[in-house]
Design brief:
This protein has 15 helices and 11 strands. It has about 350 residues and is α/β, with parallel strands linked by helices. The chain folds into 2 domains: about 220 residues, Rossmann fold (3-Layer(aba) Sandwich); about 110 residues, Homeodomain-like (Arc Repressor Mutant, subunit A, Orthogonal Bundle), CATH 1.10.10.60. The longest helix has 19 residues. The protein starts with a helix and ends in a 6-residue tail after the last helix.
């Protein structure tokens, strides 16, 4: 017998958390925050407390069956049927190929009625930000999403102040988180808000996760935007690749591409949203990242090979673009085989 959703909101002292399970390739969008809230309950129970979270998994349509990562999930209800007051609403993921589908129109209409008076906190995991943006909940607010979707979010919803550096962002009562595992970062932050640092630390330790993860989401994404093939940005990319260690100012770039500096600037800004010099700098950093990940070259050699002007200059450029030093980046992302070789003293660093 299916439990009535109207009557389910009856656990005294529990904060009602509704996680909307959008169809997505990543189960972690849904499972990550759910595990954080669920284990928080255990930690509180161990302390003899009866508060915590009442977690409700809801679907965005009348069909309560959702597929994520090829796994079929049966939600307890459609979110439109929820009648009890919601403390925290999380939109977990979003299949952007279905974002504008008619079947989601009732969900978007329901979501447009969510506000600070009827819901204490509203949040999103990864591409769930698109649902919040669609109904205006992110208008004029700072927000984040998966780094790979940031440009699309900016283009479709220009009123949203998109920032992909953070793993999660709080702006008023609205919270957004970045790519996939960032939903865990967000959920831990919500637990800390509700029940204090000690409980959040205990949950993070149990899940073998950082309470405050070092670094920023920008470390994971590509610095340069996606651009069409056979245009000036593609030619510029190839030119930098072939002359990576060389000085490439605007005049040199324009001369090699047989056009004026003004024409080059106009075309590159139109295609990438940035100046040719800035575009080239980001390309150099991306090439350097690849070498840090996949080679055992020294930092000095990489800085010279990628035309970043030495260690001090490369460090400054990395911090500006990625909010991390080259050495710390290598520690986080270096090829696992190379790391094992280092442990065996087979590779010099």
């Amino acid at each position: 017998m299916k439990m009535s959703v109207k009557n389910k909101g009856s656990l005294p002292g529990k904060k009602k958390v509704v996680i909307v399970a959008m169809a997505r390739p990543f189960l972690l969008d849904i499972a990550g925050p759910s595990d954080v809230f669920n284990f928080s309950n255990k930690c509180l129970q161990d302390l003899g407390r009866d508060d915590g979270y009442d977690i409700i998994l809801a679907s965005p349509t009348s069909d309560v069956n959702v597929v994520s990562s090829g796994i079929h999930i049966r939600c307890c209800t459609s979110v439109m049927e929820v009648e009890f007051p919601i403390d925290t609403l999380l939109i977990a993921g979003n299949d952007l190929s279905e974002h504008e589908q008619p079947k989601l129109e009732p969900f978007h209409e329901w979501l447009s009625g969510v506000n600070e008076q009827n819901t204490r906190r509203v949040g999103s995991v990864c591409s769930g930000a698109f649902a919040l943006a669609k109904v205006g909940l992110l208008d004029g607010r700072k927000a984040t999403t998966h780094w790979d979707y940031a440009q699309t979010l900016k283009r479709k919803y220009p009123k949203v102040l998109v920032d992909i550096n953070q793993f999660y962002i709080k702006d008023g009562y609205v919270y957004t988180s970045g790519g996939v595992s960032s939903g865990i970062d967000l959920a831990l932050a919500l637990v800390e808000e509700d029940f204090g640092r000690d409980i959040a630390v205990k949950v993070a330790r149990e899940m073998v996760f950082y309470l405050n993860r070092p670094g920023f989401q920008s470390q994971f994404g590509n610095l340069v935007p996606v651009f069409e093939k056979n245009n000036i940005a593609t030619r510029l990319h190839q030119l930098v690749k072939e002359n990576l260690s060389e000085l490439l100012d605007l005049n040199i770039l324009a001369d090699k591409l047989h056009m004026s500096g003004r024409t080059l600037s106009r075309l590159v800004i139109k295609e990438t949203g940035m100046s040719p010099v800035k575009f080239v700098e980001k390309l150099r950093v991306d090439f350097a990242r690849k070498l840090l990940e996949e080679s055992d070259f020294s930092l000095e050699r990489i800085s010279v090979q990628c035309g970043l002007g030495g260690l001090v200059s490369m460090r400054r450029v990395f911090i500006r673009h990625l909010s991390i030093t080259p050495s710390d980046y290598r520690k986080l992302f270096k090829n696992a085989t190379l790391k094992e070789a280092e442990k065996s003293n087979l590779v010099e660093t």
